[in-house]
Amino acid sequence: MASAEIRNKIFDTPSVNYLNHQKGWKSWAFTLDHKRIGIMYLIGVTAALLLAGVFALVLRSHLFSYQGAMLSDEMYNQMFTLHGAIMVFSFIIPSVPAALGNIVLPMMLGAKDVAFPRMNLASFYLWIIGTGCLFAAILSGRGLDTGWTFYTPYSIDTSSAVIFATFGAFVLGFSSIFTGLNFLVTINTMRAPGQTWFKLPLFLWSLYATSIIQVLATPVLGITLLLLIAERTMHIGIFDPTYGGDPVLFQHFFWFYSHPAVYIMILPAMGIISELISVYSQKRIFGYSFIAFSSVAIALLGFLVWGHHMFTSGQSPVVTLIFSAITFTVAIPSAVKVFNWLATLYKGSILLNTPMCYALSFIFLFGIGGLTGLFLGTLSVDIHLHDTYFVVAHFHFVMVGGTLTAFLGGLFHWWPKIFGRMYNDLMGRVGCFLVFAGFNLTFFPQFVMGSRGMPRRYASYDPEFQIFHQWSTVGAFVLGIGIVVSFVVLAYAAFRGPRCGSNPFRAASLEWQTSSPPDFHNFIHKPIMTDPYDFDSQVYDETLDTYIPRELADPAKVPPRKTPAHH
Amino acid sequence: MNWFPPTLIAQTNEEISKIVSGMNNDTSVPAHAIERPDGTAGWYSSEYWFPEAASDFAPNVDWLYMYIFWISLVFFAAIVGAMVYFCIKYRRKDGNLDTEPSPSHNTNLEIAWSVGPSILLVVMFWYGAEGFFNMRIPRADSEEIQVTASRWNWKFTYPDGDSSSELHLVNGRPTKLVMQSTDVLHSMYIAAFRQKVDIVPGRYTYAYLTPNKEGEFRLACTEYCGQKHSKMRTMVTVHASDERRKEDTQWIEAEYPAWQNGERIYKINCSGCHNKTAEAGTGPGFGNLWGKGEESLHGGGSVKVDEQYIYDSIMEPGKHIVAGYGPVSKMNSFKGKLTQADVNQVIAFLKYLDDPESVSDKPEGEVEKEEDEKPTEAEAENTST
Amino acid sequence: MAVADPDNILEHDDHHHDPFIAHHFESAEQQFDSGKLGIWIFLVTEVLFFSGLFVAYTLYRIHHPEIFQQAHHFLDKNLGAMNTIVLLFSSLTMALGVHAAQNGDNKKCGIYTLITMVCAAMFLGVKAVEYSHKWDLGIFVRSTFDYAEHHPEGISPYLIKLSVIPALLLVGFIGASVFSKMTEKDLLAKFFGGMAVTVGGYFLGALVGLGFMALTAGGDAHASHEVAASPLVLQAMSIDEDEKHDEHSHEEGDHDHAGDDHAHDDHSHDGDHGHAAHGAAKEPMHRDVGTFFSIYYCMTGLHAIHIIAGIIALAWVFWRCLALHWRPDYFGPVDYVGLYWHLVDLIWIYLFPLLYLID
Fold first, then answer.
1. pTM summary value
2. Does domain B143-249 sit in CATH 3.40.50.720?
């Protein structure tokens, strides 16, 4: 096929797209279109993020003074619980897979939709119900004060609305399972002809690994929460020591889910970074198969390390030893990814626009988050650091510095595709800088506090820590402003931004081979199969606005083949 | 910085047995204040990152922490340095998209940067595990101290039967804390000793440590246990000798007036939920309780605040629930834990809180003697122990 | 399962016009493969869902083997075995139903599906008899466990309560069937008729279960008396024992078990009654046995919920049989529901020996 023929077929931006082909709220509420479901998810998780973020700011304001500035102890406990529960269950877990993944995954496969569109919609409504239950816990007036981990026996004993909240988390679990199941099947059976596993964008590899975890780990959380509800209502004596139960068993069950859930949070983020680094360096990703397999390796190893949350629980020292050893093995694939991203930057053509700034922030912050994990994996050091602010800082560096940063980066990357409009790049970078600076200011002092023995979940504390808490509080507000600025930039762009072409960033993966915003069926014409990371031998066709394989290009325009210096 | 970790057990067996047998009476070391040893320590020193080290395995933990710290710092600097350098050197100029060709992968390099760091990780794991086992396996000659954690009080009981709400240890003596919880999860954390173990209801857990520095240190609960989690803190005092410890832990009731005995009971049992002031805690404040005369109850009605009311509230907390604390009492009964005499002392303390003038300042021992002399007035107070 | 539905085909579809292939699939094969992979992954999540309970079962059995040994005598092996046979038979009819659907034989498929549903309902009927009998005896979960040795007369009030909803359903389905017949909606009449027969299966199961219990009453009563008389069940975790000490109660149990001989049993039975009567607190007796039943109710209850979900899925298949939807190139949903049904059976195949046949 010569390029002239292709040219005739493709990309005259249609006036009808998935955003406007049907109108009215019903066309959204009952849509089976993965893009619309993704956008609804996006609005939902953003609302959850902002709400839980407000809780965080209240917490930080309270901690400005060592005696506690504004809340009662009880209110403080509820605040950190709701902050954690909403952030984890309603925001971070669905953020990248269910919101961004939903929108781009079928397009990256050249497919029309996910395999089970109705299950996809059901997943979204389960998210609504589950999040609604968490809100019901707040609105019931009794709040929730168990910590997001629902540790027994406190969660059996407290008078707060534990059943509402656990039922909410249970339902959110099913929402997550539905998404994971859908993605697994879609990636397995609905790849475009010619798209082999090793031509999959790395974002899809990471989503695949994430989905495996969602499908395998979440049911265990489900049964654990059901047992907790049964324990609270009927006292069945599984977790409640008053009736001969074992509270540590709950911790084992809980972390069997919740540790892999940490990888549900970070793996898709790593996938996004692989895309961004490659596209904005216009370089083939370095060590594709290492990155791809390290995602799967992290997912599988993630199932074997849950016990490292219980080093101090008095569990058998031998078990503890084994968990520590396996924990260190997770460090290797994570480090490999970082090295590969750096090697991709090498000799690239690096564009420092908003998404790339987020990607670079990710490497910086995830680097700290990952390296501080080494302290916590080391047994004797963890005994000292366990349940101190060091842990708080560590997982915020991974979840906020990692996942949230990548989520924002991904939004800025795919925003022109989703809405067909470009954002203000300068303002985007200002937002990114505020997020980066505010984040570091918030959480770096917490490492110092934690090492010096500041326990977490404390409503008041020793005066010697006050200066660190104050820096942290100031940082939290800067971070908050940064996040708001970023979302304002995006929201403005979605409605008022200048129109942009189908492929403004010269990416090579399939989702850029359709108009922006895409047609209801994603592709009006079948996409040309490309290698998503080949910016060297594939030829950029200006008319088609996409990379195409060398043999399909107009021979007159094909530049001489570049050869690597050494191989 | 030392290239190898300090030895894990600072003292030989002989040295320890010397200390245990009370031969080490070096009293010239002053008790430390709760401050870091040197407020000006730089960030590159473990003194910056850690509280004072006061147990024999603390230096080992600190060393390992700094070992990981430096390795992390080197890697982090290399990663961020390379990233910044590449971003400057290879930034896109004048929209030029041509990239210099470079290999898409390099198996040798990739294996090297996978295996290289692994070796460093093995070292971390090894020393960490070694240190951990030394923290977990108590020596056979350890002194056992019973720890009872309940919301939100600590109670420490020593081998000689004394008990206190603060932990008192003897310098250099290997100590095994046998811990139990009466309600929910707690965790005993002494930062200066680098030791932390959860306290799990329904089973005993153990913490092992050997303090090697006299002074006062912080002890905190680090497993979230409900409303006053952050108030569940107390002090650890490391004494030079058994005798010095005895001075602090021993409590001879006859030497104190009833209200002070009551205050001690209050500290160990009640202070988690009931404030000394009138301010409400998890339970009503004790500040002006006695002076109130009447307490209004949950679900209407009121009750006269008298000895009977106090006794009932301690032994059967569900009997009278004060308005605002219903519908169910969260308090555990002290039946079998406190005696009638203990309750009387608590009542004396309540009276004292209301009006210090109203209670006798005479030690109970003297009161008893006087009562023995005048048997007609006896029995009514029933303050004997 | 989100597979093709005749009501949901989008107009402008340039690939195919087959109403049973959803618009986003390229071909029938792709749709079938997707559905099949989807259901298998779903079954994996189901297995993991139950796995938590199996782990809890294993741990408590390791910690309290004697409790499990003794407590399972309260379970009626005969009823359990009968339920096992019923479920195995339903798996067979399900497989035959799938086979019929593969051949496009909707009528046969419908009949087999109906038999499967009746078996499922029978299972629930027998289960209801088992549950209600235990509740009569005060065998509840750990905290409310309050076993009292007696022989309840007549039909259990619990069984009547459990049967209210099935009875309402039965009346409703018969009414709906008759109404549909009168309004000449033959398909609906058949469907509701089938559903009425299904719910009838519940009552059949309950009757058979009651009959079985009446037949084996002598032996059963003897068995439970023997159990009740054993020192362990009566003594287990009396109030003065330290609740905190798992190992402690464990040793205690082992000790009792070791000294288990009949003459002793009766003696300690009496002695223990005396002791309990003297004890001031009204602490429930033999509470640890309740832990076994906590796990028993969780496992079988969750399984029963899956049976109910299975009946709903089968009813959907049954309806589509009546609507003659299945063809040799389109029978996926029957296959998927069949796989699900086999898994539900399989879980019971594990539950039965673990709970009923501990010896």
1. 0.85
2. no
